[in-house]
Write a structure and sequence with these properties.
Radius of gyration of chain A: 27 Å
Number of domains of chain A: 3
Helix content of chain B: under 10%
Structural class of chain B: mainly beta
Low-confidence stretches of chain B: 1-33
Oligomer: heterodimer
Largest interface: A-B, 28 and 48 residues
Strand content of chain B: 35-45%
Number of domains of chain B: 2
Distance between the termini of chain A: 105 Å
Number of helices of chain B: 2
Distance between the termini of chain B: 17 Å
CATH architecture of the largest domain in chain B: Sandwich
C-alpha cells in the first residue's frame, strides 16, 4: 500500500493560492510612483558585449606595460552560442607590453545590480595557468565598489567561476562590469591564451556564510600623529559556495560601514580613510551588510608628527632628489616595488601625508626598493659625492638590528651594485636620525645609471619612516 | 489500486505543487468508492518547541556522553557533552554547538540528544525545523533508531531512519536514509535532495518523514523527495517497531572526513521545534 493523502498540504496550498490572488490585487491597486532606477541588465557578454561601451575593452595604461593587442573575440570557440572573448597573455618581453588587463564598462549611466548576488562567467585556458585578477566594480573613475578574486586557476576545459558581490545593496548604479589582469607568472614567462564566455551578474541564492574582514582580518595596532590620513588596506569578504568552496573577494572599503570608537581622536570616512585629529586612542571596526568584520585597527595618537629635519638649502645643480619636500623631485617608478614573488614582505610607501608634506612609511620591512629604471630615466650620480637619508625607527631597536642601503646601477643590463650598512646603534627609536654617506663608501663599480635603492633589514627592523632621500655633492 | 511512487516536484513552483496536490485530492475524491486507505498524521504525540531557556527538557531528552566505541562507530572526532557550551535552549531555539577545543582527549566537543526511553513511537509523522551549520567535516543529523528490546537486538537489526543527514561541505544537499539488516552503512538505502537557489545553513528548513506500515516518505519543506518501501530494501523490513529520536552534530568521521583549515568553529545547529504526530487511519 502506498496511498497517502496530504490533507494539511492541500489546505496550505489553497491558502497560498488565495494569498497570491490577494497580493496580485494589492499590486494592481497600488499605484505608487515608480522610483527612478537604472537598468538591471545582468548580461555582460554572451555572444557579444551586452550594453557595454563601443570601445568594449579599456586596457590598463600601456605605460604600465599593459598590452593592448592581445584582446579580441573568437568565433571558433564558445562555451555557449558562437563566440567568446579571447585573451592572449603576452610573455614579459613582448614588444607590445608584458601583461594584459583592463575593464569593460556599462555604456549608459550604470546598472542597478542590487538584485544579483554574484558575477559569474565561464573560462578555459590553453594551459593550466593562473590569472592574476578577475572582478568587477572598476570603472577607471572612482573604482568605489571594486571587487575581485586573485589567482584564478584556469582549466583546459570550460569551468564556471563565481565571484560573489560583497554587498549587492551598494550597487545601485555600477558602471564597472568586468576587470581582469593576467601575466605569465604562473607559466614561467610562456604566453598563453584564455577564453571567457557567458559573463553575467546572477542571483544564485546558494552563496552564504558571509565573513567580512578588514585589514587582513587581524587586530592591527599603529602609532600615529595628528594630521595623518591613511586608507584602511587589505579588506575582503569570504563567502561559501554551493560546492562547499570558500571564495575570498577583495573588496573596496566602500562596501563596509566604518566605525571609530573615539571620533574625536580618529575619524573615518565612508571610503575607509582614517583621519587623525586628536591625541589619545581609537579603534576602527567595520561591518558589511550588518555582519561584523573580522579585524580591527587600534590607533594610538602620539600628538603632533615630528617631521624629519629640513635639509639645508642647496644649489639645485648640487642635488638629485629622490624623495624630499625640500628639493624638486626626480621622477621615480615607485617607492615600493612590491617584489612579493622574491619574498618581499614590506608594505607601505609614500603614504603619510601631514600638512601638505609627505613621508615614506614602511611596515613589515624585510627589503624594499625605490625604482628609477622602468618608466623613468636612471639616475646619473657621477657628479654627486654623497647619499642622504633620514630614518625614524618606529619600534624598539635590538642589538643586531641593521638597515643596509643597496644601490643598483644599470638594472637589467650590465648590473652592478654596492651596499652600506647602518647599524642599530646609529639608529634612533621614535626619532629621526640623519645619514650622509659618501658614495665612495658603497663600493659601486659605476653610478651613472642608478636604477634601484634598496632598504634591507632582513626583518630585524619592521617599521620605519623614511624621508629626504637624495644624492648631493659637497 | 492507485499507486503513487515518486513525487518529483520542484520546490520553486510551490503554486504548481499546490495545484498538483489539489488535483491529486480531486483524483482521490473521484476514487473514494474504491477500497482505499486515507492516512492522516494530525494528532500530535510529542512536540518540543524549545520555549524554556536553559537545558533541554529532561522529560523528553537524554544525552549521549563521550566518544562511544570507535567514535560512535564512525571514527568521529568529537566528545559529546551536555554542557551548555554544547547544548542549550535560548530564545525558543535548541542550539547544538560543535567546538574546536581540547576536551578529555578529543579535539572537538559537541552534543547528541536522544529521546530513548522517554519518547518512542511506531509510525507517524516526525519533523523538525532546523538551520544547519556548514564547513568540511561537519556532520549534523536528525535521525531515529529502533528500540533495542533491552539489548536483545543490535544495530542494524534495530533499524535506523535518518530523516536528515547533511555534510557541511555540501551546503545545498541533505539526504534521507534507512539502515537495516543487509542494507546498512555503505549499502544503506538513501537519496539526497538538493535545494535550488538556496542552501541549508542560511535559513530554517523543515525535515520530516511520514511513516506507516510498509512505507517511509521523506520530505524537505513542502517537497516530498523519496519514498522507501519493503520493495526498495535489500533485506528484512524492520520498521514496524518503536523508534526514538536523535539530534546531533558529529565532527569528522568516515563519512564527512576531518575538518580542514577552512572549517570555521564553533558551528551551530539551530532547532526551532521537533514535532511527532501519530498515524490515524
Amino acid at each position: 500500500m502506498k496511498n497517502i493523502i496530504f490533507t494539511y498540504r492541500k489546505t496550505i496550498g489553497l491558502l497560498v493560492v488565495v494569498s497570491t490572488l490577494l497580493i496580485s490585487c494589492e499590486r494592481e491597486l497600488s499605484d505608487d510612483a515608480v522610483l527612478a532606477t537604472f537598468p538591471t541588465t545582468g548580461e555582460v557578454f554572451t555572444d557579444a558585449p551586452v550594453g557595454l561601451t563601443d570601445q568594449f575593452f579599456e586596457s590598463f595604461d600601456p605605460a604600465t606595460g599593459a598590452n593592448t593587442e592581445g584582446f579580441g573575440t573568437d568565433d571558433n570557440v564558445a562555451y555557449q552560442g558562437n563566440s567568446s572573448i579571447r585573451i592572449d597573455v603576452p610573455s614579459p618581453n613582448d614588444a607590445n607590453g608584458s601583461y594584459i588587463g583592463g575593464i569593460f564598462t556599462d555604456r549608459g549611466a550604470g546598472r542597478n545590480l542590487t538584485g544579483y548576488d554574484a558575477l559569474t562567467f565561464w573560462a578555459k585556458g590553453s594551459t593550466t595557468a593562473v590569472v592574476g585578477q578577475i572582478g568587477f566594480g572598476t570603472d577607471f573613475v572612482e573604482n568605489r565598489y571594486a571587487a575581485s578574486i586573485r589567482n584564478v586557476e584556469l582549466s583546459t576545459d570550460w569551468r564556471k567561476y563565481i565571484i560573489p558581490i560583497p554587498d549587492p545593496s551598494k550597487l545601485t548604479q555600477e558602471k564597472g562590469m568586468f576587470i581582469f589582469s593576467a601575466g605569465t607568472e604562473s607559466t614561467n614567462g610562456m604566453g598563453y591564451t584564455f577564453w571567457l564566455d557567458e559573463i553575467r551578474f546572477e542571483k544564485l541564492g546558494t552563496i552564504g556564510q558571509v565573513r567580512p574582514a578588514m585589514f587582513d582580518g587581524e587586530e592591527n595596532f599603529e602609532l600615529s600623529f595628528i594630521g595623518t590620513s591613511a586608507p584602511i588596506p587589505s579588506n575582503s569578504v569570504t563567502f561559501n559556495l554551493a560546492t562547499g568552496e570558500n571564495v575570498k573577494v577583495n573588496a573596496e572599503p566602500s562596501y563596509f560601514d566604518w566605525t571609530s570608537s573615539n571620533p574625536s581622536v580618529v575619524g573615518i570616512s565612508d571610503l575607509g580613510v582614517t583621519e587623525v585629529i586628536g591625541s589619545g586612542e581609537a579603534t576602527i571596526t567595520a561591518t558589511m551588510a550588518g555582519v561584523e568584520a573580522e579585524g580591527s585597527l587600534r590607533i594610538e595618537v602620539l600628538g603632533e608628527f615630528e617631521a624629519a629635519p629640513t635639509p639645508p638649502a642647496r644649489d639645485p645643480n648640487d642635488v638629485i632628489s629622490i624623495f624630499s619636500d625640500a628639493y624638486a623631485f626626480t621622477p621615480v617608478d615607485y617607492y615600493n616595488g612590491f617584489f612579493t614573488p622574491d619574498g618581499q614582505t614590506t608594505q607601505g610607501g609614500a603614504d603619510i601625508f601631514i600638512n601638505g608634506e609627505v613621508t615614506i612609511s614602511y611596515t613589515d620591512l624585510n627589503f624594499v626598493g625605490i625604482g628609477t629604471f622602468n618608466t623613468v630615466s636612471p639616475i646619473n650620480a657621477n657628479d654627486m659625492t654623497h647619499f642622504h637619508v633620514d630614518i625614524n625607527v618606529r619600534e624598539a631597536i635590538q642589538p643586531g638590528d641593521f638597515i643596509t642601503i643597496q644601490l643598483l646601477n644599470n638594472v637589467g643590463g650590465l648590473e652592478s651594485s654596492g651596499t652600506y650598512t647602518i647599524t642599530g646603534d646609529q639608529l634612533l627609536s621614535q626619532e629621526w636620525a640623519s645619514f650622509d654617506i659618501a658614495l665612495d663608501d658603497f663600493g659601486l663599480a659605476a653610478r651613472n645609471q642608478l636604477g634601484l635603492i634598496f632598504f634591507i633589514s632582513d626583518a630585524t627592523i619592521s617599521d620605519i619612516y623614511v624621508d629626504n632621500i637624495y644624492y648631493y655633492r659637497e | 489500486m492507485i499507486k503513487i511512487n515518486k513525487y518529483n516536484m520542484s520546490k520553486n513552483s510551490y503554486l504548481a505543487m499546490s495545484l498538483l496536490l489539489v488535483m491529486i485530492c480531486v483524483i482521490y475524491s473521484c476514487n473514494t468508492d474504491e477500497t482505499q486507505t486515507v492516512t492522516n498524521f494530525t494528532e500530535i504525540t510529542m512536540a518540543d518547541e524549545f520555549d524554556v531557556d536553559g537545558a533541554p527538557n529532561p522529560d523528553i531528552w537524554n544525552f549521549d556522553i563521550g566518544t562511544g566505541q570507535n567514535g560512535w562507530g564512525n571514527n568521529e572526532l568529537q566528545y559529546y557533552t551536555s554542557r551548555p557550551e554544547n547544548v542549550v535552549v535560548q530564545n525558543g531555539i535548541l542550539i547544538i554547538t560543535a567546538r574546536e577545543e581540547q576536551f578529555e582527549g578529543s579535539s572537538y566537543t559537541s552534543a547528541r540528544l536522544l529521546t530513548k526511553g522517554k519518547f518512542e513511537q511506531k509510525y507517524g509523522r516526525w519533523e523538525a525545523r532546523i538551520r544547519l551549520p556548514y564547513g568540511k567535516g561537519i556532520w549534523p543529523a536528525f535521525w531515529l533508531l529502533g528500540d533495542d528490546k533491552n539489548g536483545i537486538e543490535i544495530w542494524p537489526e534495530i533499524g535506523e531512519i535518518d530523516v536528515m543527514e547533511y555534510l557541511g561541505d555540501e551546503p545545498t544537499k541533505v539526504f534521507g536514509t534507512v539502515h537495516g539488516p543487509g542494507y546498512s552503512a555503505g549499502e544503506s538505502i538513501t537519496k539526497s535532495y538538493e535545494l535550488e537557489g538556496d542552501r541549508f545553513d542560511t535559513g530554517f528548513h523543515i525535515f520530516g518523514i511520514e511513516w506507516g506500515p510498509g512505507y517511509i516518505n521523506f520530505y524537505v519543506d513542502d517537497v516530498l523527495y523519496n519514498q522507501i518501501t519493503p520493495e526498495d530494501v535489500t533485506g528484512r523490513w524492520v520498521f514496524d517497531d518503536r523508534f526514538y529520536i536523535i539530534l546531533n552534530i558529529a565532527v569528522g568521521g568516515s563519512l564527512p572526513g576531518a575538518p580542514n583549515a577552512e572549517t570555521v568553529f564553533p558551528q551551530t545547529m539551530l532547532v526551532d521545534y521537533v514535532r511527532v504526530y501519530e498515524m490515524n487511519n
